[in-house]
Write a structure and sequence with these properties.
Oligomer: single chain
Shape: elongated
Helix content: 55-70%
Structural class: alpha+beta
Number of helices: 12
Distance between the termini: 86 Å
Length: 371
Amino acid sequence: MNSLLFFFLENMALIIALLYLALKAKELLFPDLRESKLLLALSVLFISFLTFSVMYNPFFYEGMRLDLREVPLYFISYVGGWKVGVLSAVFPSFYRYSLGGPTVVQGILQTVVLPVIIGSLFRNKSTINKFFALLDIKRMMIGMLVYEVIKSIWMYTTTPATLFITLSMFLFAGLAVLAMGLIANGENHHILVRKELEFYSNQDPMTQLPNMRFFRNKAQTLLAQYVPVAVVMLDVDYFKTYNDTHGHQKGDAVLRSIGQLLRDHTRKKDYVARYGGEEFIFCITDPFDDQEALKIVEKVRRQIEQHHFEGEELQPEGKLTVSMGISLNSSKKTLDQLIDEADQALYQSKRNGRNRVTAFAAEEKPETVNV
């Protein structure tokens, strides 16, 4: 009795330890929390290895090989569905068959095939991003209870297993699945909370753009790697007039629309952020030359000018526009210097009549450019 209980405790410890390491590896290898074919393949390989590890040193009883191989197979089928479960069960099935013995067929059917079927049936099929979602522990344990009742009756009536052995396996398998579910939920909850905190600490809540904290981190990384950048400052012309005329709610809608236009008309490798108030900032990453950077900025200005904003006909110029300033040469400059230069160029655009782009010139006053 003591040796049997100690054996199942060893099985549980092995399952829990390897699962914990796998979850930590998943967090490290897939920081964006997105499912992929690679994640699916690694999950199948891990469960196959975990099941093999549990089966490698079994408890022998009258020709039977007793272990908790059903635990990882039920768990992965509940989490990932029948396809993942079937793929994970292929190697354990062949391994168990190669070992032979009087109960080889029962062993495969009861502890490899059946847990995959039951786990898949009880899986919540509406779950999105299943490998990072929080598990419904109650549902998982109900499914495990159904599986264990079927398996225990089947095992007790068709194999030499005693009632004590059958009930022991029932208990320890249930505890092992519960432990796996709680550990997985704990790790996934930790990841989701951390990602949520990172998201909100790096995002402007009103425009849904990144904030200056995010922008500074990205831009300073580029500068540290000697990647050429151009920093652009943007300010909405006569925004106070718009707010006073239409109210802050519609003013906020304008800022959100401009944020979306900035996303749509810059490149994927560029970084856009809200600077504050009605000002925005973006970093043009590794432009081919100054002319390319100026074309991108002018395109943004033109798209905003051509966009229809509600009530813009009441603006001083009859439409809602923006003024922009750009610092082109990032060599041997700090980010604060580049922002200051772009800011000076922006205010030169304001002084020169608004709705224009001005490039900062170090040896002279910033000059307005036409592209």
